[in-house]
Amino acid sequence: MSSSILVVGSVAFDSVKTPFGEAEDVLGGSATYFSVSASFFSKVRVVAVVGSDFSDDHASIFKRHNIDTSGLVRADGRTFRWKGEYGFDLNEAHTLDTQLNVFETFRPDLPEDYRDAEYVFLGNIDPQLQAEVLDQVRQPRVVACDTMNFWISGKLEALKKTLGRVDILVINDGETRMLGGEANLVQAANNVRAMGPRVLIVKRGEYGVLMFNEDSVFAAPAFPLEEVFDPTGAGDSFAGGFMGHLAASDSLDDSTFRRAIVYGSVMASFDVEEFSLKGLSKLTKTEIEGRFGQFQKLTHFDAL
């Protein structure tokens, strides 16, 4: 039986424009993408804040995926909103507008039964809030977190303190170089791991993922897709698939980590095929396992 995962992050309304279409005020946020993705593998408990404009209809996706929302707080005001645009390379979003709204004063307060969580994922929020969450969790088996350049440049000392309590860090290649203070990705990764996380997962967009785990390095490609509509949430969908498989396996050996990387890549590939959560919400386990098998064929080769 798999262990449950606690995720703390944002639930938001996104307005996204890509060269292939646009969507206005659709459901998004790091905790949303992560929890829906992870729910295909494990039980998920979500901690986040939403405003009075967040309806039961919006909440229905959590219910459909049996996600525990006891930690989803409703506050007076508007839900966090983000507006962004992607160019043809789709590798980087250009933020046009951010409205924190109720998220600005969010202070995570974990329900009592959440505090025994074995697997914890700290979404991309203020590192001081990430630390406050860890103060409330009793004996987590695995703690993973995400961060971004905003926190690296603005709250580096707080971030370093949090990283000292983290097992797995999931960031992109630019953030790795920025945090590690090196242009060379391998050297930067070594510097980042010296801050605390024994496992560093480097997201590289259309070029796939690198995992630095003790003395081994593992690379997985991005799945070649005929159609990519919206990369929003791909990183959090990846993290959800990754952590979901770890929790379901209840094993932390290197081979489990490698499979988890591929499951994360599978979930990210389904996410980018449609806007918002449409690509994830209608998935079946059969489709997930089918694409996992395609990944195996994609990367298989015989020794001489």
Quick structural overview:
This protein is an alpha/beta fold and 304 residues long. It is 37% helix and 25% strand.
Describe the structure in your own words.
By secondary structure, this protein is an alpha/beta fold. The chain has a single domain (5-299), classed as 3-Layer(aba) Sandwich (UDP-N-acetylmuramoyl-L-alanine:D-glutamate ligase), CATH 3.40.1190. Helices cover 37% and strands 25% of the residues. It contains 11 helices and 13 strands. The strands form 2 sheets. A 9-stranded mixed beta sheet has the order 5-4-1-8-9-10-11-12-13, sandwiched between helices. The protein has a 4-stranded mixed beta sheet with strand order 3-2-6-7. Strand 4, helix 2 (56-64) and strand 5 (68-74) form a beta-alpha-beta unit. Helix 3 runs parallel beside helix 5 (156-163) and helix 6 crosses helix 7. The longest helix has 18 residues, at 254-271. The protein is globular. The mean pLDDT is 95.
